[in-house]
Structure formats: C-alpha cells, structure tokens
Amino acid sequence: MIQNPKRYTITAALPYTNGPIHIGHLAGVYVPSDIYARYQRIQGKDVAFICGSDEHGVAIPMKARKEGLTPQEVIDKYDGIIRKSFDDFGISFDNYSRTSRKIHFETASAFFRKLYDEGKFIEEETEQLFDAKANQFLADRFVTGTCPKCGNEEAYGDQCERCGSSLNATDLINPKSTITGETPVMKKTTHWFLPLDQYDAFLNNWILKDHAKDWKTNVLGQVKSWLDDGLKPRAVTRDLDWGIPVPVEGAEGKVLYVWFDAPIGYISSTKEWAEREGKDWEPYWKDSETKLVHFIGKDNIVFHCVIFPAMLKAEGSFIMPDNVPANEFLNLEGNKLSTSKNWAVWLHEYLEDFPNQQDVLRYALTSNAPETKDNDFTWKDFQARNNNELVAVLGNFINRVVVLTNKYYEGIVPEPGEFNDIDNQTLTEMRAYPAVISSSIERYRFREALGELMNVARLGNKYLADEEPWKLIKENPERVKTQMFVALQIATALAVLSEPFLPFTSDKLKKMLGVHPSPADVNDWDEVAKPQTILSPGTQIGQAELLFSKIEDDAIQKQIEKLEATKTANKAENKKVEAQKETITYEDFAKIDLRVGTIIEAEKMPKANKLLVLKIDTGIDVRTIVSGIAESFTPEEVVGKRVTVLVNLAPRNLRGVESQGMILMTTNAEGKLVFVNPDADGVGNGETIN
Asked: How far is CA 605 from CA 81, 557, 628, 640, 656, in A?
C-alpha cells in the first residue's frame, strides 16, 4: 500500500454502450468511486478520476442488429443517455472519454504494436467457430450453447452467466450461432495471444503475497482461483469488423479484442484530460508515487487483476494498481438485475418518478452496498431508508436547527456563552467523526462511513432532545444561545462531511447555512476536527427548506407494479409454446363437435380441491360437466360465463358424477387459467364452431 501518495489515478469501469445505466452499476462502481474521488479532492489531493464509454466488442453489432441501427448509431445513442445519467447523479469524473475517439485508437494501437515488436505475443493459427451461412467467424457473444461446468443451456461463448465461469466458445456443448441459428463449423484463422502463464509468478507475488492484507477477500479469492487453475495464453485479437484494427500487416478483418482495448481506455482518457488541462499524463500512470485504484464489479475482477496487470507488466513502463476494491452484485427485489430482461431500475427513469432525489438513491445504494456479498435492493427498503433515516434523522435535525435560529435570532448565528460539560462533550464527539469517516473511506468501507455520517446527525438530534432549547428560551435565553451555537456547529459539520456521499444535499446545506467556499489551502474536513468555531457568530443563515421529503406508499406501489409488469412481459416472451401435434385430416377435425354454451350453475365437488361441477346450457341441452378449475375460480365467478364446449366427448364418471363433455381453457403468461370463450355479440348458445 502506497503511503502518502503524491497523486491519485482513480478509474471506474467503462460502461458498455449497449444500454442505459441502472442501479446495479451505480451501487457497484460509480457511487463508491465518486465518494472516494470527492473525499480525496476535499483532502487537497491531486486527483484524476477517469472513465469513458466502452464502445467496441461484439455486443454492439448485436444490439445494432436488434434495434435496426448501425453500430455507430447505437454507441452514440447510449453514450448520450449514460453521460446524462452520470451528470444527473453527480458522478464527478475529471474526464469521461469514448473508446471510439482517435486518441484511443492511437493509444491502443501503439500499446499493441510495442508488445508485438518486442515479441511479447504468441502468433498462432487456431480453429475457431465459423458460421458458414453468415460467412463469418463467430465472436464469443455470437455463440450460445450448454455450459460444460453447470449445464446452463443458454451460456455465452465467453462466460456462463449462471455459474460465472469464464469460457471459450469452443468449450460449449451443442453450440449455435446467434446470427443464423445454425450449428457452426471449425475453421482455421490466425490470432495473437498474450501468454498469461509467463506472468504467473509475478501475479502470485504482487497480489496474493504483497496485497494479502489490504485487498478485499472476494478479490483475492477469485484471483487465487484463477492462478490455482493455471493461466493459459489468451487471444488479444478477434475476427470482427467492429473495433480497432489490428495494426499488423496481414491482419485485415481482425480487431483488438475488446478486453485488450477497453482497459487501455483508462490511459487514453487520462491523456485526453491531461492534454485539455495542460498537464503531463505520464506521472498518473508511470510514477511510483501515484496511487492507482480501479473501481469495478466482481464480473471484471479477472480482467483488472490478471489480464490488464499482465499487459502493463509486459509493456514495462506502467505502475500497478494499489487496490481493486471490487463490489459484489446488487439484486433487485430478489432477482438478478438483467439489462436484456429489463429487470432493472434505470437511472434516467428513476429521476422521472423521483425528481431532484438523486441523493436519496445514492444514500439507499451506499447504505445497502454489496461490498462483501450480493445484496438486494427493494423499493420498501428504499422508502424506509428515506423516511426513517434521511427525513427523520438528518432532515429533522437540520430543519429544527435552521427554524429555531431564524425564530430566535432572525437567522444570525448567536454568540455562545460558557460551555458546560455536555456542550464540550458533544463538540468533542463531533470533532472525532472526520477521522472516523476518513478511516472507513480509506479502507473502501463506504457503507460503514455513511453510517458514521448519520451518527453525526444522531448526535445533533440527541443534543437538542436532551437540552430542549424551546423550553428554556424564556427563562434562560443566554443558555439557549450556547445551545443553538453548538447545534449549528454540528449542522455545519454535516454540510462538510456529507459532500462525498450526498453532494446535492451538501450543496443545499452549505447555502442554507451561509458556508462559503474555503481558500484552496484550507481543508474543511480537517477544520471540523479542530477545537475551533466552524460557523462563526454573526453569520447570516438562510430560511429552512426541506432537504428530504417523505415518500408515500402509492409512489412505491407504482414502482412495484412496474416491475410486476416487466415480470409478466418476460414470462410471456420466454413462454415455451408446445410443439405442434401430429397432422390430422379434415375428416378427423370434422368429428369434433364444439358448441357455444353458458354456465348456469356451479358448485364445488365435495372432498375434491380441483373440481367444479358445472351445469351448462349448450343450446342443444343442459348438461353436467366436471372441470378441474376450482383452484383458479370460485363457483360464483364462473356462473354466467360464455364458454366453448366439446359436446361429443364420451361421458366419463368422476367421483360418482357423470361428466358429459369438456370446456376449453388455456393459460396466460402468468400460468393462470383463462376461458377460451366467444365474446362476440349475437353468438347464441348451441352455435357450432368450425
């Protein structure tokens, strides 16, 4: 671990531009990295917070084909949506680039060319899956099949999303091309491989030995698993027409593999930022006094802790990351978040339903962050955290302090009298929190840090509740001045300490309290910890405004219903239709006598949970039919229903009742029984269906 680094290079995983950003991305990568970057800036550190859109790889042309767009139109569309979401939620990147920009093409090509010229790659002719009908080699994501490790029949050629195993397309059992549905054949092609096995000893020492005590156990565990399995050469090129062309003669029709090209995007984005700011980019990637930290989700651990470090080591002039604090996954209402299944809370849609409540979501996601294990986001928990914590604890304290200051002193911070033991103890406790919160942030425990921030608000609420200035104002107004002064110091501490976590709230609070920007050489965080005044007597504060508002049940119910609609739509889309039965002749069908009927009586069959005994007017008679629909309908619900009846079915005795036919039913997307019934007006009982 680097002690007292001269500068920080903080990267956040490049979001893939084949869809918008959802809460899983925010919780897993972008809020934690933003908290860390904002905190370091407050500390006066030299920070480069770097990100950008990942715009290559096979998923882009796949998405383009699905949406009827060109790949360029797809990346432009989603890059715009993603950028706006980050901006709306206050993710404070110093630079957000794109891997489709010229500076990235040049940087990635030069990186590859240097390794190529120095003989760091293995050039090898291999057999790859080829779709003869589409006349193209199949990149990993253009192949699906059965996972050889867990049996998942819908595994992709690069990874099984059920068991998380990393795969090669040739590993799949019964592979199919997603382009044509054909079974691919093997065909020879030339590619370049990075011999990861040559970096095995380096990776073992650097991660498992040198970082055994300061890296997360989930990261160390996954890396150890890869190293224990034995590293193998990995292709860094692909047969594809979308991406950065391989800068080698004779490599026409080949591009850099997206997982070779994408992490270099951090470097090209840093170059772009440095050029704009008039800085030298190299110290941010090549100086041993720079602390490099990668924020990612657990699905990217292998690329950031094995493949990218091996690439940097092979190049020879770059530093290694000081930490890769990968988070686990966030689930949604008990199910895995899925972009393809629309099982997500999209950031741009969230702000339509909860305008100006970015910090509420930042708070809910941080307080429930999947730092050490997968966690579950539920709308009820989101509501409870807002109403019971942000509104009732933080918002309530600030509101009371500001309202009372305006009521008693026309909004002017009072001059305190002598502090008693309770005042001194409260202020001492307050001054301890900057160090406590700092310790948690430095160890990437953002959930813990946020909990300590809320303890500052709880300290303030307890102080006011114990001191009760509203009861003392008439008999001892001088004492109340001291009490309100102490409360205002705590409110100011909250304005400063909340900035990394709740930037919009912090900004509002600073304006409300009349806290002006400090000079560049003053660290407000440290000022809170000093035995001094942080909001001076005589300062004019503003009027109270609600920092947070209560979220009502109907707003939450609307979100739950939206997810239920998604679930229903997914069931309908994924419902497997039964295969057609064997062909029959017209004469076979003509034997079937289907009539329109009306249920005129219904009762439950005694001692039978599934059966209803129905009396049906078929137009030719009134007959009894026993139907297995009692678990879906009550007798009262079916009386009067128009139904389709098979009237010439041979009678059958069911529990002593002769059933003289059958009514037609089907099931909907949710698996519920539905009547196949004639709804048209003017269709009478007894009409034949043919």
From this structure: 58, 38, 10, 19, 10
